[in-house]
Amino acid sequence: MATSICRTLKYLQPTMCLNIKLPQPVFVPIRTKKRYFIPPAVNVKQKSQSEQETKARAAGVVVRQQYIERAINISCTAGIFDPYIPPEGDARLSTLSKEGLKQRTEQLRQSAASQLAFRKIKDHDPEFSTKEFPALAQQIFIDAHAALTQFNKEKLHSLVTERCYPEMVRGNRYKTLRWRFIESLEPPRVVHARCPDMISKGNLYGQVTLRVHSRQTLAIYDRFGRLMLGDEDEPRDVLEYLVLERHLVNPYGRWRLHGKIVPAWAPPKDPIIKTVIIPGPTLKPEEAFEDLHYQVPKPKAVQWYK
User: Fold this and answer.
1) Number of neighbouring beta carbons within 10 Å of residue 208
2) Res 57: pLDDT
3) Which of 262, 261, 248, 251 is nearest to 76 (CA)?
4) What ranges make up the beta strands (E) of the chain?
5) Partners of residue 204 on adjacent β-strands
6) Cα atoms found within 13 Å of the Cα of residue 212, Cβ hemisphere only
7) Which of 18, 11, 13, 63 shows the shortest CA–CA distance to 36?
């Protein structure tokens, strides 16, 4: 019985396979991503930049030209034009002495260009006055340093120019500043003024140099709370030459701190006390650093004499 079933299936198999129609395969064209960059082969010399550009153009890649440009800010100038040269021995020599009279006459000669600058400034800023401006400039100086100690960036940007801001902020990260303005030893006065232009002839900027002789305190602490420079309880006499600038053409411009002039005869600054890591002892592989702290030195033998 089993053999008869196997024989019937054997004869029916080819006929069944002929009657079944299988679907024919369909080929759908799929476009893959066109790769402009092919990794270089191994052990192949690197091509020069010109060869790489030629190969990229042949592949249809447009190589953009690189322009070496630097962004500029027209709200302030990039520096101090014709900076004021402070006379040597300022705030030490008397006007009655021989050297003091020479310095005074030299200042009167240089004041001719400043008078022309004052006229240009008054044409754009009618409220400008050499008598009232020193008090306003000194207050800007005090508010700017107060904002610096409090790390108030928004207020500091409104009081200093874009050129002065990085100079004041640089190196102050992870530090604590303590600054205080105590008093003015001499009334501030305007000693220099220039009215330069930038980009175009009518784009004028006003720069006024102010002489400030005051008493201040300064203390700088590092991130560990250790004193690096100065002392909060020790006031010092400071003579500074501040430069304030304003974009005269801009109707919404305002006077801002632009920089300081440090004379060549100024004394050097005090060295900064830095916190450094003291290298520990060299350990053996079987030793641990914590075990060395608990080693009690052996007492030396003491001999008593009668």
Assistant:
1) 27
2) 81
3) 248
4) 176-194, 205-221, 227-247, 256-260
5) 197
6) 29
7) 63
**Neighbouring C-alpha atoms within 13 Å toward the C-beta of 199:** 12
Angstrom distance (rounded) from CA 65 to CA 140: 45
Residue scoring higher pLDDT (133 or 5): 133
Contact 256, 155 (CB under 8 A): no
Render the burial of 16-29: b for 16+ CB within 10 Å, e for the rest: eeeeeeeeeeeeee
pTM of the model: 0.65
State the Cα angle at 145 between 84 and 267, rounded to 5°: 50
Burial class of residue 125 (count of CB atoms within 10 Å of its CB; 0-12, 13-18, 19+): middle
186-236 pLDDT tens trace: 999 998 898 888 878 888 899 999 999 999 999 999 888 889 888 898 999
**194: β partners:** 207
User: What gap in Å lies between CA 234 and CA 33, rounded to an integer?
Assistant: 72
* Residue 214: HSE in the Cβ half-sphere, 13 Å Cα cutoff: 23
Q: Report how far Cα 239 is from the mean position of its chain's Cα atoms.
A: 26
Locus of tokens 């430069």? 243
CA distance 257 to 243: 6
The size of the chain, in residues, is 306
